[in-house]
């Protein structure tokens, strides 16, 4: 019999609540013969305040012994900005070499969008996850004085760019439209831009069926609101990906339904799946959070582990639920989770 | 009698056409006693192909001897990406220390927006123009090999950040809502982020009437489409400013109406005013380009030089023209310019 050995990190704020629903739906959808084992980790603000620790080497070892990781949200106003982001979230992405940060955007029927009309939106952003301006390179001199200088170094390697570009081409190849757009700012960031553009063009030669184009990141934000249908798969740098995927989430139904995967396709380390939204401390503990983004992240997790049918069942359940939602009275976090669990168990 | 000594750079593509209309409206609005002198410069793709030059020291000297610069657009597909951007546009911004890159966004009555409803949009982005990832610091090793490494260094100084933050506070103070939002990514880019955040908080103490807040750049893109009314004045880094002002233009009527100023408030060098749109080679020479963004850039130019009444007259003319435009047959570039010239002379 098979097993699924899952590390669970509820984290801060609404993380707790949404992860509970994600697990509920996971249990409901998994085939009978798959033994689900979950181990909960207490990372986040509470642990940081209690011990000063965010993510230790021992923690990484413990996490490593799992097939995948499900994360709710990390972050709390009581912790200075950057401490948990750099000390936990980014540390984990870098330690486990999560270089494919996968963020699908699909505007589902019945879902409200801030855009006029009801444009077709169905694209995937492949955001590089381990390089660029996120490396933490840089520093400060003369801190706090009028002569302070602070630098941030974006580091881009052929190795790092090629593997994520290749992954994106493969994903584009597998989709009906087979189109891949590189988003960068190669007219200004010419060093990194040339590296990205050259590698993109090289790898393109191996995927003759994939149509390619290039858009500057500033122009990409325009198209995301005026013509989102032009996008199929997008590959981009870590920081540009951060920015455009929040915008992509906003136009395709909001961060309440935006899922993501921090994927290491090699399998050397477990991949991590999390909603794009944060810990939302203002509504935490009130049963108001929409668990849909977490449930869709569970679908990405299942697909990553080879459970394609189960992933699709979750996505269909979410689609059906959202299509009906307009007509439903407001439901709590767990009511939405229950409804989805019933649907996937179908 | 007064004089206005203007350097004019039509540039590439539609630049020529839209600048002609900008000058038409400028002539029509200027008081009789102001002697307008214009000198045209041939920068852009043609000059680059003919001479290999983009912007020489002699060019900079010649430009310096003017009260202000009006630019159409620079850029052509025949020139490799980055050559004119770094060699002309950014070189000029840096040489003339254009540290206040001013980009107002106002959704005018009758103007189409991709956003549902007709949200209120009336904010100004103050984008830093001489630092950040735009400095051209960085480099490449092992170029073209599988071991290539390319870096981009974002350079941020207390001097550079303070002056633009102070400018933004003063602009917020002068507006009815008196609200200033810092947009950065201080939870990830912690070195630059702390510099920006600390200086922002310090300068805030000098402007007790200004309400302040902070938003990460990724979240800012969400609010720009879900709640643009929350913004009054935004101050941000060079790259974040590049990205969010294209999005801001898109939601507030498109780049056809987005104006900008590259301002050196010290007056040591002339400031430069230009539409946010590019050279649009696909529609160049057809009289199809909308000159409105250039005309609004002329208004910013006039305001910068102290002609507040004339600037306001242009803005009112544009407003009135746009409000009527839905009911008008499609007009050519020069027909729109003529209509605006008549209105401001009105
Ligand atoms: C919280 C932060 C470190 C993170 C990022 O910038 O990657 C978040 O914005 C995201 O997109 O997952
Ligand atoms: C053309 C390019 C160099 C420029 C920039 O990135 O600043 C443009 O996008 C702008 O916003 O003015």
Automatic annotation (TrEMBL), chains A, B:
Q: Which Pfam families match?
A: Iso_dh
| Cofactor: how and how many bound | Binds 1 Mg(2+) or Mn(2+) ion per subunit.
Binding-site residues for Mg(2+), renumbered to this chain: 218, 242, 246
- The residue stretches assigned to a coiled coil in this entry are none
> Per UniProt, where does substrate bind?
93, 103, 127, 218
By its UniProt entry, which PROSITE patterns does this protein fall under? IDH_IMDH
Isopropylmalate dehydrogenase-like domain spans which residues?
Answer: 5-340
- Indicate which residues the UniProt annotation says bind NAD(+): 278-290
Q: What GO MF annotations does this protein's record show?
A: 3-isopropylmalate dehydrogenase activity
The task this protein performs is described as:
Catalyzes the oxidation of 3-carboxy-2-hydroxy-4-methylpentanoate (3-isopropylmalate) to 3-carboxy-4-methyl-2-oxopentanoate. The product decarboxylates to 4-methyl-2 oxopentanoate.
Q: Which family does it belong to?
A: Belongs to the isocitrate and isopropylmalate dehydrogenases family. LeuB type 2 subfamily.
Record-linked PANTHER family: D-MALATE DEHYDROGENASE [DECARBOXYLATING]
**SUBUNIT field:** Homodimer.
* Protein name per the record: 3-isopropylmalate dehydrogenase
């Amino acid at each position: 019999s098979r097993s699924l050995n899952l590390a669970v990190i509820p984290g801060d704020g609404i993380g707790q609540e949404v992860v509970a629903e994600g697990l509920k739906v996971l249990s409901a959808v998994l085939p009978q013969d798959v033994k689900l084992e979950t181990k909960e980790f207490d990372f986040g603000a509470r642990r940081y305040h209690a011990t000063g620790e965010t993510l230790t080497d021992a923690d990484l070892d413990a996490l490593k012994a799992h097939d995948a990781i499900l994360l709710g949200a990390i972050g709390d106003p009581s912790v200075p900005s950057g401490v948990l982001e750099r000390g936990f979230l980014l540390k984990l992405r870098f330690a486990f070499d999560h270089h494919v940060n996968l963020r699908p955007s699909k505007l589902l029927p019945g879902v409200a969008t801030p855009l006029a009309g009801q444009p077709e939106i169905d694209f995937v952003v492949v955001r590089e996850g381990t390089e660029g301006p996120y490396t933490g390179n840089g520093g400060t001199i003369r801190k706090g004085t009028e002569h302070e200088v602070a630098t941030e170094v974006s580091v881009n390697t052929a190795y790092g760019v090629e593997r994520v570009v290749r992954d994106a081409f493969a994903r584009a190849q597998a989709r009906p439209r087979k189109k891949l757009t590189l988003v960068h700012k190669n007219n200004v960031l010419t060093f990194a831009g040339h590296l990205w553009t050259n590698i993109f063009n090289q790898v393109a030669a191996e995927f003759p069926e994939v149509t390619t184009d290039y858009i500057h990141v500033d122009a990409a934000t325009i198209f995301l609101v005026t013509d989102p249908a032009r996008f199929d798969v997008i590959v981009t740098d870590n920081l540009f990906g951060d920015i455009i995927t929040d915008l992509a989430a906003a136009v395709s139904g909001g961060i309440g339904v935006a899922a993501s995967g921090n994927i290491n396709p090699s399998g050397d380390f477990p991949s991590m799946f999390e909603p794009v939204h944060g810990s939302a401390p203002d509504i935490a503990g009130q049963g108001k959070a929409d668990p849909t983004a977490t449930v869709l992240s569970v679908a990405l997790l299942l697909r990553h582990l080879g459970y394609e049918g189960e992933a699709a069942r979750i996505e269909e359940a979410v689609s059906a639920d959202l299509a009906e939602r307009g007509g439903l009275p407001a439901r709590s976090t767990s009511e939405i989770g229950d409804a989805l669990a019933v649907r996937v168990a179908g």
